[in-house]
Structures are given as structure tokens and as C-alpha cells.
Specification:
Layout lengths: L9 H32 L10 E11 L3 E6 L5 E5 L6 E9 L4 E11 L3 E15 L3 E16 L5 E17 L2 E14 L11 H4 L2 E15 L9 E7 L2 E3 L4 E8 L8 E6 L3 E5 L2 E5 L6 E10 L8 E11 L7 E7 L2 E2 L4 E9 L6 E8 L3 E5 L2 E5 L6 E11 L4 E10 L31 H9 L1
Parallel strand pairs: 12-18, 20-26
Antiparallel strand pairs: 1-4, 1-10, 2-3, 4-5, 5-6, 6-7, 7-8, 8-9, 9-10, 11-13, 13-16, 14-17, 15-16, 17-18, 19-21, 21-24, 22-25, 23-24, 25-26
């Protein structure tokens, strides 16, 4: 019997060598990518994932290669391209180290009339966990087993590279919507195929598999409570001008992250630093005010904020009207004379005061500051009342008065007495006018 010798052309051999090199390069790139992503993500915020997860579901496989399935009439191996295998199942166990990184053990098997193929691999898995959806990639290596009809089963080294998407149903159950993997396997059929057909003697299968099924999430803590903040003020009631201290307590944040704080207030001058702020109430009107604190974790892309409020009351001091007293000096005057009126005005609240509004019931009054001058010219006798008003800077006022008594003028002196003529006598002697005659003597005697 003659055997045809199959010689592989050099260009074909070169193409296959390049194909193998490309496969090795792809594996190396994926491994380096996994290493880079792992080193970056493990530094991010950790949350409590399930301790482990188990996948079980359907698997479709395209082996992606050609193998020998028998001999022809000349004894040469018959090359057969393996068809897609629709019958199959897959399972995987992932042990989670943190939110992102897990060690995955994977098994998959497909069976059909011409061939059966199964894989048992292990390797790292990286998963991004979102709200309602998880996405992952994995790089697995291990053992592949290929059984071809008419030939003994063969084991070979293999790799699985790919990823998928899981949709969360409930806390402990997810749906693996799709998993797509590149499956690489190397086999040795040297005991059946001669060296003249190296591609059949040591075939390399580069196939693809698709999966879907259920993922059971085991263990892990319940979903963590959302970030929260609680605000307080001390004291919660102050007089105008007194300070208020506000404090915020943040909870359910990652203790390894530095938080940012933002303070606002509806009243007063606020100066905040981290979890404590001081409110200056100088110049604030009396009333109720609200201080708000917002706490944020800059490293959390979503849900990393919390806010709270606290109320405080500012009371104005009691508004007391000023007190004033006035005195007159002198308190009794003669008509037309002046009197000085002095008023003393003070504020119980120690605010500025001013005396004005001088009035008098009679006479004229002129005032400057807390002193007034009363002119009684033309005023009738009696009591004159002088009033003044004291007003503080808030508009509160009070009045006071002093009295001046104007005395009645003294009565005029009586008129001089009137002389009565009793008699008269003449002095007729011009030479001696002083001589009194006898007649005049008689008159004087009667007087």
C-alpha cells in the first residue's frame, strides 16, 4: 500500500507560526491589562460584595479548529473541521476578595456526534458592580479535553479569555444575560497522525463560546446604609451678638476617604471648618434661623453626599425706654428773671440718648442738649411748667418736666399826704419880710 506524503508549504507554516505568535501576544496583553486594572481598582472604595458566587447555565461552543477523524483509503488522516456544538452546559465558582477582584474556577462542556470538548480552568476575574448590573472580564488557564469519534480522548493546555454581563434580580440571585469567551486549546495526536501533517498531529483550536444562566450570590453583608449626616447647634438660643457653634456628624462614609464640608446659614456671619462652624450673630435681627451642612465624599461618583439642618433662635435684648428727670434752678423767680432747667436722661439698655423738644407753659424756653433756659418776661404770676423729651437711638422716648414759680410783683408805694389850708397870712413889710404882724400872729396861734 502506498501512502501519500503531505508536505506543508513554507508559507503555510509561516502563517501558522504567526497565528501562534498572535495568540501568545493576545494572552500576554490581556494578562497585563488585568494586572493594571487590578492594581488601580483595589485602591478604590470597597463595599461588601458576596463572599462567593456560583454560575450555572447553558453553553454554546464553536471549537474553532480542524482535527483528524479517521484515515482514508491510503491510510492518511482525514481532516475534519469541527462544527459548532449547541448541546452544552457551564458552571463557575467565584471567590471574591473585594468588590472587584475574584478567583474564578470554571468548567464547561459540550457534546455532539463528531466530538466532545470540555474545559477546566482557573484564574482572576475583574467585576464592575453597578446599580442593577454587573460587568466582568476574566483570564483563565487550565486543562482542555477533546474527544473525537474514532480517536482516544486527549488532554491539552488551554485558556479562556472573555467577559459578560449580569443583571441583578434580587440580592442573592442574578441573571447572566451573556458571557462571551475566546477558548484556546492545544492537543497532541502524535500517536495517530504522522509528522507529515503537523497541523493535525498537534492541532490548535481557537474557538468561541457563549453562555447564559443564573448566578447565585452567597454570603456577604446586607447593602450598606446610605451616607448620612446629623447636625446640632450649641446653644440653640442666644442673644444678639452671642456666637453659635454648629457641628455635623457624618456616618456611613468610607473611613479611609477625606470628606468635604460646606456650610450655609440663613442668618449671621458663618465661618466653617470641616465638621464645625461658628455663626456670628452681631447685627442679626431677632428670629429663628437655619444652618445647613453638606458632607461629600469626592471619590464616590454617586450617592456620596449627605446633608442636614439645625435651627437656632436669636433673641433681641429687651427694649426699655429711657428714664429722665428735670430740675429748675431757681425754682422761684421774680417776673422777668430767668431760670435754668437741667434734665438727666439715661438708657437702661445702654444705648445713646438725646434730649430735645423743649416746651414751656408760659414765658419762652430755649434748650440745647440736656439744659434749657426759661425767660419769664411777660409771664403772669404763677407756676410755669417746662417739658422736655428724651429719645434713644431705637426711637424709644420718655418725657419729664420741671416747674418754676413766678412770684407776684410787690404793691406800689402809697401816694404822699395832701396838705390842708387852715389859714393864711401875709408878710406885707418889704423891708423886713420876716416880720409877722399881729394878724398873722393870731393865725399862727390858732394853728
Amino acid at each position: 500500500m502506498f501512502h501519500r506524503k503531505y508536505v506543508v508549504p513554507e508559507d503555510e507554516m509561516s502563517r501558522r507560526d504567526c497565528l501562534r505568535s498572535d495568540s501568545v501576544m493576545m494572552i500576554g496583553i490581556v494578562l497585563l491589562l488585568n494586572l493594571f486594572v487590578t492594581s488601580s481598582l483595589v485602591l478604590a472604595q470597597e463595599e461588601k460584595p458576596p463572599k462567593a458566587d456560583i454560575f450555572a447555565g447553558y453553553q454554546w461552543l464553536n471549537p474553532g479548529g480542524t482535527v483528524a477523524t479517521g484515515r482514508d483509503a491510503f491510510g492518511n488522516p482525514i481532516a475534519t473541521k469541527l462544527p459548532s456544538i449547541a448541546e452544552g452546559a457551564g458552571a463557575a465558582l467565584g471567590i471574591n476578595f473585594n468588590k472587584y477582584l475574584a478567583l474564578e474556577f470554571d468548567y464547561g462542556g459540550n457534546w455532539d456526534t463528531p466530538a466532545n470538548e470540555s474545559t477546566a480552568t482557573v484564574g482572576p476575574r475583574l467585576m464592575w458592580r453597578g446599580e442593577g448590573v454587573n460587568m466582568f472580564i476574566h483570564t483563565l488557564g487550565g486543562l482542555n479535553r477533546l474527544t473525537v469519534k474514532g480517536l482516544p480522548a486527549k488532554n491539552g493546555l488551554g485558556a479562556v479569555l472573555g467577559g459578560g454581563i449580569d443583571l441583578k434580580i434580587v440580592r442573592h440571585l442574578s441573571l447572566r444575560l451573556l458571557e462571551a469567551d475566546y477558548v484556546l486549546g492545544r492537543y497532541n495526536f502524535a500517536d495517530f497522525v504522522g509528522p507529515q501533517t503537523p497541523e493535525l498531529r498537534r492541532p490548535v483550536l481557537q474557538g468561541a463560546r457563549l453562555r447564559t444562566g443564573l448566578v447565585f450570590n452567597l454570603g456577604g453583608a446586607a447593602p450598606s446604609a446610605p451616607p448620612a449626616a446629623s447636625c446640632s447647634v450649641k446653644p440653640n438660643e442666644v442673644m444678639v451678638g452671642e456666637p453659635v457653634t454648629a457641628t455635623v456628624a457624618a456616618s456611613n462614609f468610607n473611613p479611609k476617604h477625606t470628606l468635604t464640608y460646606n456650610w450655609t446659614s440663613t442668618g449671621g456671619k458663618l465661618s466653617g471648618k470641616d465638621s464645625t462652624a461658628t455663626i456670628d450673630t452681631n447685627g442679626v435681627a431677632g428670629g429663628s434661623y437655619t444652618v445647613t451642612a453638606r458632607v461629600a465624599d469626592p471619590k464616590m461618583k454617586k450617592g456620596g453626599e449627605a446633608s442636614c439642618t439645625a435651627n437656632f433662635t436669636v433673641k433681641e435684648p429687651p427694649k426699655n425706654a429711657p428714664t429722665m428727670s428735670c430740675t429748675a434752678n431757681p425754682s422761684t423767680v421774680q417776673p422777668g428773671t430767668a431760670a435754668t432747667i437741667t434734665c438727666t436722661c439715661t438708657s437702661p439698655d445702654n444705648v445713646a440718648v438725646n434730649v430735645s423738644g423743649w416746651t414751656a407753659s408760659a414765658g419762652t424756653i430755649s434748650g440745647s442738649g440736656n439744659t434749657g433756659a426759661l425767660n419769664t418776661t411777660g409771664a403772669p404770676a404763677g407756676t410755669i411748667t417746662v417739658n422736655a423729651t428724651c429719645t434713644d437711638s431705637r426711637g424709644l422716648s420718655s418725657t419729664s418736666s420741671a416747674t418754676v414759680n413766678v412770684e407776684a410783683p410787690p404793691p406800689p408805694p402809697p401816694p404822699p399826704a395832701q396838705a390842708n389850708k387852715l389859714s393864711s397870712c401875709d408878710f406885707p413889710n418889704p423891708v423886713k419880710p420876716w416880720r409877722v404882724d399881729n394878724t398873722c400872729k393870731a393865725v399862727l396861734d390858732d394853728v
